[in-house]
């Protein structure tokens, strides 16, 4: 089978799964939805492997294959096909997405078991995977936008999955609206591209743009900046990032899949895919890299102080995506995508482990209340440590190789790009610190009440409360489910986490600098005409970079050990000494407040102004004035109708006399 | 074929007026389904390559005044006619499931309404068009006035006065057009093809353009002539509102494309910017108002103002893809807004109120309703993947070349639409149920009307080319008539 | 006899009748004066008919007489009805048709 045929299959399986579950869930026993969903993604993964192998069979220069299903919107000069592009970049993305999704589906079959919305969950989750795959496989900008929007929609549906919770629906709305802003950026970019180049198909646009645009010409920079608006909104980069922490309202598998491994990486994919355009507009690429740098530092600082476990991991995601954005913006495509892959593994693992811990804590997500789970939940603790090591970039873990490759590349490009290397290493220190903030806090120390409960063989049960606001949950409808699940007792969860843990450890070896470089060779098919792709750092600088990275990891873990284990009161003393800074970080650098002030309030005010002023005064006013004028005129004329017969008679005679006189005068 | 499409609604309506009350509803529904079938047959038999009229009917009617009874269909009106038949069938069916008092009068009026709208879409003679346009108002007068709720008399009178002022101006303009044209040709004729061939001098075109525009802008409604909308939308019975919002505004937009653009090209070019500004303001104003409303009907109503603003932008972009997008969007908006009002009807019955602040949690135990509403909401906000997105894409792309600023500002309307549409969905479907309200799935009867509509929405979303391709040739023809009249200053050719 | 004499008489009668309609308050008198005006018109018609020698004037005068008769019937009927309802028989005070 050809690669494109596999491509269509990759799309078909999750969509079929979603529709099947949606239509049939009443008739089949409850668990079937989970199995259908997992099987659908598993088949998609198999198809992705098929596409991968099929591409390997092609010679390296001819690995960009397109296929079109039908004319989607073709008329008067616009030609928008329902077409896919199967090339190394999209295949790598498909493999990552389907692979990690299969494991997360497996995890969910156990995690979501007591939830009445089980079937709905899997239907939405399958639809999400379909959307993400559509985004990645799209062969033209319009279909990209369609996939982009579907992903946003699926994200909304899954964030507000427990829709009886006010916080969840609000978070969903926020995510969706910010997403739409990103969509607008992409649509405007598409208009500009069409105006300049006259096509929407990727391959056509990229070829034409090389001839059509001069480097850093106004329009190409504008196109790239608009694409960045979309990318940043989806990938939660500053200033479009405020939706991501709130998105933790969704169930943990959702956070693992969407907000760690797949959806948020769409922005990275976009920049990598549109690299010919970005290479023609270095200004825009540099802006992207700086935004990525800013995000990775800001997010890391916030992750130091936030106390909700899932939110720490969410900020960590934001930060790591910042690395990836820096990577693909400065030209380190292999490194960026490589980090995308390894990050998917260890971040999903971390979320899954967090889900297990939160299950043990009966829904409580406050890290200050967790401690000492090493005896109660050894598997989960191990998963947390492995994930933390990979995140911190501990030597030989996958994160070690992937993160540092980006920074080495930055150093290699030299000049201004050193700032990325320096900033990246500094943040790596912070990353290691907060990764083990989680690790040490949860795993070591005296077991908390809940941990003791688990050791005894039971499971803590809390009042069903919304973890964010403490509001009583509405449990009669059956979701969220009343039972909590931990990995130790659910084989599905264990298997998924185990596989991811293994991958977090070994995946690094695919792309060892100078040794294997497997990914680099494969991706060459997509990036061959790029100059930046072919910059390969020397082995010496690569090893130096790895060394520094390892040092940062050790330093960060060491300081975390110091702060959280060796000297427990230290954090309290630091906090009281640095109230201001702590508060600032705790409020997430005041971004939410800023957006509320700059965007949301004015919009509401505009609505109210329109309603009260324009509608009542102006529009109705015009009508009332007119009606009033007509009425006044009527009243005036009314005066003539006195009911006084003699007056009427006088009028008749007088009028007649006047007429007669007139004619007499005129005719004489 | 066209005569049949025109006569079946009115025929069935008149016949049912003589039937016993319990037969009225089924016969009317059957009649509307027959009309629907005829329109589908019309689509099947349509030849996409021809830019001119097809299935032409041409009879002399009032020879002394030069008025002919001329009907015809082309790519622009093809799907509008089909949409009209579909929405009227839905409205008939919905009303049949919830019998109103005095059913005979109700169904008679609905039938006359369908007849009038079909006539307006099919007419190729100016006076015939004006006649049907004005006739459209009569049944709605009765439907809102007799069967409405709340302050219906005031609402009806307001609607009547606004629309009639516009219609009166349009009548004057139509007569003037024919007479002024006859001064050059020597022969009085109201046929659109004749009027098009002999363009009037610019001075006359200006005021005639605005008189026609007045009538159309009131009907759409467009800012600032939308004052009748809130009251009318509050009082109108919901199945009728689906038609008032879904079909009637499209006749106005269609009127621009069919009558104004080809016959008054110079005025169109001269006033293009002004009308674009009106459209843009409608989008922004409608969206801003929809933000702040608490009555669910008015959210949909102001949203319609915004959507019609987009259609105005498309028609006056004076580019083929913009206008083609506008035609697609006319069909899309009708398809989407009707289910919205029908779902509002379901919700209003459930909650006993139309105030958004008193609703919530309807999705519990009602997954089918929730999914249908979600699909409709996503289509309303023109989420990429829906046909509405393609319509807006085409419109804004058409606008982008020459009038970039308008396109960019209009995108703000897209963002606002996402917010207010989702807010409507969330506040009704999500969060907690208010005390004392039971949540249950919608009945099979309601589903029998809503599900086909949503299926059509999904179908158009998958293959919008169907509508675009058919409209292509006719749209290029109409827009070409305008751009051909422009001075050759920098060569504004119709976009290929 | 020259036709002018008849016309002057007709005009005098018409003026008298008009004055009566305008100045008198009793509806009965107003009706009488109205009759006077009508007959003045008749006189003028007959004078012209005689002077030109055609019959049109005669015919039209007959029509006027018929119409006058009908109008008197209605008018008198109204006055009788007013009397029966004890309404003031004063034209100034009957103002029900005020706008």
Helices and strands in order:
The complex is a heterotrimer of chains A (668), B (496) and C (99).
Chain A: H1 3-24, H2 32-56, E1 65-75, E2 78-86, H3 88-111, H4 118-137, H5 141-159, H6 166-197, H7 202-212, H8 218-234, H9 243-246, H10 252-261, H11 266-273, H12 275-280, H13 282-305, H14 309-330, H15 333-360, H16 378-392, H17 398-413, H18 418-443, H19 449-455, H20 491-506, H21 518-527, H22 539-566, H23 570-577, H24 579-586, H25 591-638, H26 645-667
Antiparallel strand pairs in A: 1-2
Helix pairs in contact in A: 1-2, 1-4, 2-3, 2-4, 3-4, 3-10, 3-15, 3-20, 4-5, 5-6, 6-8, 8-11, 8-13, 10-15, 11-14, 13-14, 13-18, 14-15, 14-17, 14-18, 15-16, 15-17, 15-20, 15-21, 16-18, 16-20, 17-18, 17-22, 18-22
Chain B: H1 2-17, H2 21-44, E1 54-62, E2 67-73, H3 75-97, H4 103-122, H5 126-135, H6 137-147, H7 152-185, H8 192-197, H9 202-219, H10 228-235, H11 238-246, H12 248-263, H13 265-292, H14 296-315, H15 320-351, H16 367-380, H17 387-400, H18 404-429, H19 444-462, H20 465-484
Antiparallel strand pairs in B: 1-2
Helix pairs in contact in B: 1-2, 1-4, 2-3, 2-4, 3-4, 3-11, 3-15, 3-19, 3-20, 4-5, 4-6, 5-7, 6-7, 7-9, 7-10, 9-12, 9-13, 10-14, 11-15, 12-14, 12-15, 12-20, 13-14, 13-18, 14-15, 14-17, 14-18, 15-16, 15-17, 15-19, 15-20, 16-18, 16-19, 17-18
Chain C: H1 3-23, H2 27-52, H3 56-84
Helix pairs in contact in C: 1-2, 2-3
